[in-house]
Design brief:
The protein has helices spanning about 1-35, 40-60, 70-100, 100-105, 110-120, 130-155, 175-210, 215-235, 250-275, 280, 285-300, 305-330, 340-350. With about 350 residues, it is mainly alpha-helical.
């Protein structure tokens, strides 16, 4: 009983921990890029750090059980590296450069909806609207995204002390035309990140069945994504100066993003997808928004508004509905009684 409960709760605990890691990384990356760090350089160094970190672990832990590399597995790994690491990380870093961390985390909450729709379209996720579980999954996903939209668009009355002197909402784009163009570019980049993330969730679910070695899988992915981004970077950034990172905070950001934000996180994400499926993992994305709001209020002393509270309640409520629906579907169905046998028993009693 205890081990069964632990097995059910462990993926939830892991996903909550990964959301904390993601929230911290978003804050670090935003500050580092405001200090002049190039997003393409950051992604390249991040993936290099992750591959160096994971390669020896994969070699010593899975060298005897790892199967031979086939063309099919190579294709899966290459595309997964492009979607889950190279393109996705670059797009989210561009979004952070041209918008704000709060806006990025709020807008990224459309990823569960995209993942759910893609999973239903590819028949990797069942949706029966005639059942309570199907309605709960659909309603939970929509409510979570609705909460994220409330967090983004509705500010409401202040619930804490007076607002800071600047008094400008960080969710809105700058008023000038150049700033608006950059904000639009950042928004498109975040949307592209959500599409890549949703596709990666589904692709990683299939890859985990074909190549169930999480350390080797993610080590190859990090190495492939490093080569992909490095090839693009060397063509676009011919000068050597952007590639030399000297500031201590930027070096710390690269190490944290590579080892923790990419290396450890990708291994745990792959494990959670293998255990509970892609929609379960995507459902935790809205939690990042709540953690960012807590960091803004408790550490950065930002103002707390009614919209943040209402949006957070909706996100948690939608997450609970979706997880409840998936949990109910995972439970074994009670055996059905044969109708003929039931009728015979009734006749005998009469």
């Amino acid at each position: 009983m205890g081990s069964s409960w632990l097995g059910d709760a462990l993926p939830v605990v892991v996903m909550l921990g990964l959301n904390v890691v993601a929230a911290v990384m978003v804050s670090l990356v935003k500050v580092a890029m405001d200090g002049g760090l190039n997003p393409l350089v950051l992604v390249t160094l991040q993936q290099l750090t992750a591959s160096v970190f994971l390669a020896p672990i994969a070699y010593f832990k899975e060298r005897k059980t790892r199967p031979k590399m086939t063309l099919e597995i190579f294709g899966y790994l290459f595309v997964s590296a492009a979607l889950g690491a190279a393109l996705r990380q670059y797009m989210i870093f561009v979004g952070l450069r041209y918008t704000t961390a709060t806006f990025v985390t709020a807008f990224s909450n459309i990823a569960p909806v995209l993942t759910f729709l893609l999973a239903v379209a590819t028949r990797s996720e069942a949706l029966n609207l005639k059942s309570r579980t199907g309605v709960a999954k659909l309603a939970g996903t929509l409510v979570s995204v609705g909460g994220a939209m409330v967090l983004t668009l509705y500010r409401g009355a202040a619930l804490t002390h007076a607002a800071p002197p600047h008094g400008v909402s960080s969710h809105r784009p700058p008023a000038n035309a150049a700033g608006h163009g950059k904000w639009t570019l950042g928004t498109v980049a975040i949307l592209g990140n959500c599409v890549c993330l949703s596709c990666w969730f589904l692709l990683q679910g299939r890859l985990a069945r074909k190549y169930p070695h999480v350390y080797s899988c993610n080590a190859f992915m990090s190495a492939f994504s490093f080569l992909q981004v490095a090839a693009v970077g060397l063509c676009t950034e011919r000068s050597i100066s952007p590639w030399i990172v000297k500031a201590k905070f930027q070096i710390l950001t690269v190490l944290y993003a590579g080892v923790v934000g990419c290396g450890v996180s990708f291994v745990l994400l792959t494990w959670c997808i293998e255990k509970r499926g892609p929609v379960f993992v995507a459902a935790f994305i809205p939690v990042v928004q709540i953690i960012v709001s807590v960091i803004d209020f408790s550490i950065l002393h930002e103002q707390l508004y009614l919209g943040s509270v209402l949006g957070s309640v909706l996100v948690v409520g939608g997450l609970y509905l979706l997880l409840w629906g998936k949990r109910q579907e995972a439970l074994p169905c009670p055996p059905k009684v044969d109708e003929d046998v039931d009728k015979e028993q009734q006749q005998v009693q009469l």
